[in-house]
Amino acid sequence: MGERGAKRSRADRRRFARGTKVKETRTDRAFIAIAYVLLTVFLLVVLLPLLNIVASSLSSPQAVSSGRVLFWPVDITLRGYSEALSNPAIIRGFGNSIFYTVVGTIISLAGTVAIAYPLSRANLFGGKAITGAVVFTMLFSGGVIPMYLVVQSLGLLDTRWSMLLPNAIGVWQVIIAMVYFRTSIPEEVYEAAQLDGASELRILWQIILPLAKPLIAVIALMYAIMQWNSYFDALLYLRSADLQPLQLVLRGLLIVKENGVGGNVAEQLKRRELADLLKYSTVVIATIPMLVVYPFVAKHFSKGIMVGAVKG
Amino acid sequence: MKLTDEQVAPGEAARPAQARVRHSSRFARSVRQYWQLYLLLLLPIVWFIVFRYVPMANAIIAFKSYSPVQGVWGSPWVGFDNFTRLFSNPVFPTLLKNTIILAGYALIAGFPLPIILALALNEVRLRFFTRTVQLVTYAPYFISTVVVVSMTILLLSPRVGLLGRTLSFFGAGQVDLLADPDFFRHIYVATDLWTTTGYSAVIYLAALAGVDVSLYEAAKIDGASRLQKIWNVDLPSLMPTATIILILGVGNIMAIGFEKAFLFQNALNLSTSEIIPTYVYKTGILNANFSLGATIGLFNAVISLALLLIVNKISRRVTGSGLW
Predict the structure, then answer these.
(1) Which class is domain A88-311?
(2) Which residues face B64 on adjacent strands?
(3) Which residues in chain A (48-107) have CB-CB distances under 8 A to chain B?
(4) Most exposed among A38, A254, B32, B286, judged by the fewest C-beta atoms under 10 Å?
(5) Coil, strand or helix: which one is A282?
């Protein structure tokens, strides 16, 4: 072994020192290269459009309108942002959305826990039937019009309640919560508390909920994102402009075509250039809350989804 | 709260325990012991009744000629009149076709990409790179529909947009894809893919993480190449998750969302962009044709339910696993 060892090349010795690994074949290495290329493509497809949007928002109106902006701002200016932020409709929409998101999430959380916790207790009479009735609503619904009639007959049309109540509880979230309560809280905790003479509500409030912080975080996030991002309820139930959430305001500004009238050609051109730039800036402003929250959210969210998907 | 029955009336204490217990039903006992939980359930149950089950009852106006004055229960019966009128309406076949094609296209196109992304992420060792890719591709899911559609419109604008200009550069002249009915579906599905691929990949990655390590070792010992490992170990472990996602997708084909289609709709692409939910909104709400809207909605819901049941049964028979 000794003389043979001396004849071994340095590379061989290094490889041996690293431990005997099955050497990657040429096809495998090509395969990994393809994987890298693929991932880079995915990355760019998502990233580049976003870069273009952000770059455009920071560019001058003329640069944007003449199509000179690629992935980096041209003639950097904050004009787009100052114009967008001075729009009262946007400020109002922002405020409304914050209200709906915060209050709506609290209501949704309370409702979800209130139904998921008791149903997660195995020995509750009628629990199975109620759970069945709840899950059934995921498979079948009355439809938009019947729901509209309910909201109308409750006198909730064009009120803030119409944004908070009709979709307060999501069955998917209830399922996630039920699974969590069932699997993450051992039976001994209940027994010990009951032996101590604690009432059910006290058990929930003082013992279970503190233990369920990750669950609450995930579900709260899911509700918050749904509430912040959707516009359908607002479109359906709201008439007054000052109740409108941000998404509906954005739709009015960015998608519904408005026709600017009046002024000579030069003025119209300037207005159109500014309008173009404004759209980019508005889009970025609308996405900033998400971007700020996202890094913190991402980890919790994916865990919650995995729990729901794997166990649910 | 004691664990056992303790509200015993005086005098009964003398009787043996068994006789006492026989007097209360399981339900009464459960209520006595867990009354606080039932109390907690009360409000959410009321909510479900009001906002989920009452609308189901209201859907009965599909069989009536609804008038706001007479209300849901006072309006006169018309039997299946609304349905026959709906099915003979020339708009209806187009609506159905558009809805199914759009949803089916989105489902089929959206199926392989997250799997490919998850598999690729699983193969690459460089942590920094995979983390970055995951973080970036996951983000679009959190961007609101309005913003995504706005971005798409901006990007596709023939004069100003990045993609629009690129297309004009290669293609002929100024092409506004957004006004072209033939492109509505492609744009819709492309934005769907852009938004959800990273998000769906996370679910598949979770499934991949749960694969038994000994399977990988066995594959290595057998001398399997990466490709063979993926084909024989990774993909089969993804099958249950993928099946469920597919089932849910097919079952939800008729339940396709309103928000994105409505935003992409304009006067020029209606021939492909008018789908069931948007039509219900326009005629049912904007034109206040409540009966017609409810009729379509009921039709939709029944077909959806039937689809889910059928697809689940098929999946049960074919793969042995289903939704329930």
Answers:
(1) mainly alpha
(2) B77
(3) 48-49, 52-53, 56, 64-65, 67, 69-70
(4) B286
(5) helix
Name which residue leads in pLDDT, A285 or B15.
A285
Contact present, B185 and A91 (Cβ < 8 Å) = no
Domain locations along chain A? 88-311
| CA distances for B85 relative to B80, B88, B89, B90, B291, angstroms | 9, 5, 6, 10, 11
Query: By CA distance, what is A192's nearest residue in B?
Result: B3
Q: Is A143 on the interface with B (CB under 8 A)?
A: yes
3-state secondary structure chain B: CCCCCCCCCCCHHHCCHHHHHHCCCHHHHHHHHHHHHHHHHHHHHHHHHHHHHHHHHHHHHHHECCCCCCHHHHCCECCCHHHHHHHHCCHHHHHHHHHHHHHHHHHHHCCHHHHHHHHHHHHCCCHHHHHHHHHHHHHHHHCCHHHHHHHHHHHHCCCCCHHHHHHHHHCCCCCCHHHCHHHHHHHHHHHHHHHHHHHHHHHHHHHHHCCCHHHHHHHHHCCCCHHHHHHHHHHHHHHHHHHHHHHHHHHCHHHCCCHHHHHHCCCCCHHHHCCHHHHHHHHHHHCCCHHHHHHHHHHHHHHHHHHHHHHHHHHHHHHCCCCC
d(CA A12, CA A16): 6
CA distance B66 to chain A (A): 11
Task: Report residue B22's pLDDT band, with 50, 70 and 90 as the boundaries.
Answer: low
* H helix or E strand, kind and range, residue A263: none
ipTM over 0.85: no
What share of chain B in percent tops pLDDT 70?
A: 90
C-beta separation of B164 from B158 below 8 A:
yes
Closest approach of chain A CAs to the CA of B150, in angstroms? Answer: 6
Residue A213 pLDDT > 70, yes or no?
Answer: yes
Sign of CA dihedral A77, A81, A82, A84: positive
- Is the pLDDT at A5 greater than 60, yes or no? no
Point out the residue among B29, B149, B227 whose CB comes nearest to the CB of A255: B149
